[in-house]
UniProtKB/TrEMBL annotation:
Name this polypeptide is given: indole-3-glycerol-phosphate synthase
Entries under NCBIfam families matching the protein: PRK00278.1-4, PRK00278.2-4
Gene Ontology biological process terms, A to Z: L-tryptophan biosynthetic process
Enzyme Commission number(s) from the entry: 4.1.1.48
Keywords tagged on the record: Amino-acid biosynthesis, Aromatic amino acid biosynthesis, Decarboxylase, Lyase, Tryptophan biosynthesis
UniProt cross-references to CDD domains, sorted A to Z: IGPS
EC top class, as a word: lyase
Domain Indole-3-glycerol phosphate synthase: 130-392
Listed Pfam families: IGPS
Keyword Transcription: no
Lineage of the organism: Eukaryota, Viridiplantae, Streptophyta, Embryophyta, Tracheophyta
Catalytic activity reported: 1-(2-carboxyphenylamino)-1-deoxy-D-ribulose 5-phosphate + H(+) = (1S,2R)-1-C-(indol-3-yl)glycerol 3-phosphate + CO2 + H2O
Source organism: Brassica napus
Pathway: Amino-acid biosynthesis; L-tryptophan biosynthesis; L-tryptophan from chorismate: step 4/5
Molecular-function GO terms, alphabetical: indole-3-glycerol-phosphate synthase activity
Length: 402
C-alpha cells in the first residue's frame, strides 16, 4: 500500500486495485476506500477552510494518504456512507453489533443506501448493551481525539518506557504454578453487576493482586459503563506495579491503541463481536508495532472460527459472559475448545484465556481441563476485602510463591 491517490472531488472513482473485490460494486467515492482499509483512516476537515478536507490514513506510516476538496456536506454524506458500509461489511461477517446508529444519515439525504440500510432497522436505539457501549465509544473517541491528536500521541509513544511481556508473564506463571496464569481485573463496576466495590482504590487493589500472585492485571478504562479510567492505568503503572497491564477498553478505532500505549498499557483487548476481520488484522499489526500484546476476545463458535482464520494471534479470550445478554455460562469455554477449533489452537500453540464468571477452585479446574492456560477474573476477587486473599481463595491455595 504505497499509493498516493489524488482526489479532486468527493464522488470520484478510485482505482480498483485499492478496493477489496467484494466492494467493487460500491465504487464511486473516496469514502468507500475509507471503509475498506477504512478503519485505518481518520477523517479531518482542515481548519484552513471548511470546504477543504484531507483524509489521512492512520497507516500513514505505510505512506498512504488521500486528499481533496469537497463541500462539508459532501463530506458528511460520505462519512455516513462509510459508516453504513462498515455496518454492511460487519453483517456479512455475521457480526450483529452495528457500529453506528442507522439514522445518523445527514438530514435531507435520501440516497439508495438509506433506503436499503434502514429497511427493517428504522429504530435508532441500540439493540443491546454492547451496541450501546459501541455507539457511545465512537462518540467518545471522536471527542478524545480532538484533545489528543494522533501526531502528539505518536510522540508520547516514542518517549514512553518499553512495554512488559504480557504473554511471557502468563506462560511463566502457568509453568511456575501449574495453574492457569491469572489476569486479575481492576474493575469498580459493570453494567451487569452494578457497583462491585464502593471504596475503590485501584492502586491498592493492583498491589494486592500482585502480592497474591497475579501474572498480569486487567484495568478497566471505560468510564461511563464500568466506572474505570485511563488515570487508573497510569496510576497503577507509576506506582511501580510490575505485572504487565491489559487496557480493558472497547476498541473501535486505531487511535485508541496509541492512546493505551501512551497511558502505560502492555496489552489491549480486541473484541471480535464488534470488529471485522480486517479491523482485527490491522489493529493486531498496529499493536505489535507499538510493542503491545493483543487479547482477541470471542464468545461463540462463529467468532472463534473467524479469529482462527487471522494470522498472528497469540492470545484468544473466551468470554463466558455474552456482552449482549449478560448471560454467564462457563461451559462456553469448554464448548469453544472442543473439536476442530481446539485442535487448531493447540497446533498453533495459542494461549487461551478463560474469561468471566470464575469464582471457585472448581471453576478454575474446569476451565483448565478444557484447555485454558490463563484466566481473566474480576468480580470474585475484586469484591473481597482483601483481594490478595481473594486470589488464594479462588485457586484453593496460595499461588504467590509456588
Ligand atoms: O468479573 P468477571 O465475571 O470475573 O469477568 C471479568 C472479565 O472477564 C470481564 O470483565 C470482561 C470480559 N470481557 C470484557 C469486555 C469488556 C468489559 C469487561 C469484560
Amino acid at each position: 500500500m504505497d499509493a498516493l491517490v489524488p482526489v479532486q472531488s468527493a464522488g470520484q472513482r478510485l482505482p480498483l486495485r485499492l478496493l477489496s473485490p467484494s466492494l467493487h460494486r460500491c465504487i464511486g467515492s473516496v469514502s468507500i476506500r475509507r471503509s475498506v482499509s477504512g478503519f485505518a483512516m481518520d477523517t479531518r476537515i482542515s481548519s484552513r477552510s471548511p470546504s477543504q478536507f484531507t483524509i489521512r490514513s492512520q497507516q500513514s506510516d505505510l505512506k498512504e494518504s488521500l486528499g481533496g476538496v469537497a463541500s462539508s456536506s459532501d463530506v458528511r454524506i460520505k462519512e455516513w456512507e462509510v459508516d453504513m458500509y462498515q455496518n454492511e461489511l460487519a453483517i456479512s461477517q455475521g457480526i450483529r453489533i452495528r457500529r453506528k446508529p442507522p439514522s445518523k444519515a445527514p438530514l435531507g439525504y435520501s440516497g439508495p443506501f438509506e433506503l436499503r440500510l434502514l429497511n427493517g432497522q428504522v429504530a435508532d436505539s441500540p439493540s443491546n448493551i454492547l451496541e450501546e457501549i459501541t455507539w457511545y465509544k465512537d462518540h467518545e473517541v471522536s471527542r478524545m481525539k480532538e484533545l489528543n491528536p494522533l501526531e502528539a500521541l505518536k510522540k508520547a509513544v516514542e518517549n514512553a518506557p518499553p512495554t512488559r511481556d504480557f504473554v511471557g508473564a502468563l506462560r511463566s506463571a502457568h509453568q511456575r504454578t501449574g495453574f492457569p496464569g491469572l489476569i486479575a481485573e481492576v474493575k469498580k463496576a459493570s453494567p451487569s453487576r452494578g457497583i462491585l466495590k464502593e471504596n475503590f482504590d485501584p492502586v491498592e487493589i493492583a498491589q494486592a493482586y500482585e502480592r497474591g500472585g497475579a501474572a498480569c492485571l486487567s484495568v478497566l478504562t471505560d468510564q461511563k459503563y464500568f466506572k474505570g479510567g485511563f488515570e487508573n492505568l497510569e496510576a497503577i503503572r507509576s506506582a511501580g506495579v510490575k505485572c504487565p497491564l491489559l487496557c480493558k477498553e472497547f476498541v473501535v478505532d486505531p487511535w485508541q491503541i496509541y492512546y493505551a500505549r501512551a497511558k502505560g498499557a502492555d496489552a489491549v483487548l480486541l473484541i471480535a463481536a464488534i470488529l471485522t476481520d480486517l479491523e482485527i488484522t490491522y489493529l493486531l499489526k498496529l499493536s505489535k508495532k507499538l510493542g503491545l500484546a493483543a487479547l482477541v476476545e470471542v464468545h461463540d463458535e462463529r467468532e472463534m472460527g473467524r479469529v482462527l482464520g487471522i494470522e498472528g494471534i497469540e492470545l484468544v479470550g473466551i468470554n463466558n459472559r455474552s456482552l449482549e445478554t449478560f448471560k454467564v455460562d462457563i461451559s462456553n469455554t469448554k464448548k469453544l475448545l472442543e473439536g476442530e477449533h481446539g485442535r487448531q489452537i493447540r497446533e498453533k500453540d495459542m494461549i487461551v484465556v478463560g474469561e468471566s464468571g470464575l469464582f471457585t477452585p472448581d471453576d478454575i479446574a474446569y476451565v483448565q481441563a478444557a484447555g485454558v492456560k490463563a484466566v481473566l477474573v474480576g468480580e470474585s476477587i475484586v469484591k473481597q476485602n482483601d483481594p490478595e486473599k481473594g486470589i488464594a481463595g479462588l485457586f484453593g491455595r496460595n499461588i504467590s510463591q509456588t
